[in-house]
Amino acid sequence: MVAGGATGGGDGDRSNAGQVTDGDYVLVELTEFRQLDGQPQWAELAQARLATATWSFDGGSFVFDPPDVRTDLFPLRGSVEPIDGGGLRFEAAGFVTDGTNSQTESTIFGTIRPADGGLLLQATWMTSGASAAVVNGAGFGSSSVNAYEFAGFVG
After folding, report:
1. 71 Cβ partners below 8 Å, 6+ apart?
2. ω before 75 within 30° of 0 (cis)?
3. Which of 37, 87, 100, 106 lies deepest, with the highest CB count within 10 Å?
4. What are the distances in angstroms from CA 136 to CA 24, 98, 112?
């Protein structure tokens, strides 16, 4: 819970300045978004997922749970560590292998800290996939990457 704020999905209010404490947060205002890699048409879906994702902090653990994603890869689970000023540094990752020739990985890392009368979350989220096959002695492969940097206030 955040001093003066709500947990379990937030209350749509970013006026809850204070130290980051255990609880669930959602973005209430996305202030920056930049696609670092990937197809341009993927950016809108990524923003929608970020807008409704849950960011959970519990002791030394962290969970990033966006909606409408692969359930074998998400939610991403990881750890947190305190930083100066009452904030936290977080990181989480997930990895799945689909059969013997395909794999997908997702990673998120960043900080959450008091700023400008609220709690500011700044992060980078990357997901990549690769697959390979040999058909009639000829090798084939494909890969994809999408990566985003963003910032916003959570409640």
Report:
1. none
2. yes
3. 106
4. 51, 22, 51
User: What pLDDT is stored for residue 119 in this prediction?
Assistant: 95
> For residues 73 and 94, what is the distance between their CA atoms, to the nearest angstrom?
6
Model confidence pLDDT, tens digit, residues 40-99: 999 999 999 999 999 999 999 999 999 999 999 999 999 999 999 889 999 999 999 987
Of the candidates 3, 34, 10, which has an alpha carbon nearest to the alpha carbon of residue 114? 3
> pLDDT for 91-144, tens place per residue?
999 999 987 788 999 999 999 999 988 999 999 999 998 888 888 988 889 989
- What is the H or E stretch that residue 133 is in? strand 118-135
Which phi and psi (to 5°) does residue 132 adopt? -150, 155
Hey, is 100 helix, strand or coil?
A: coil
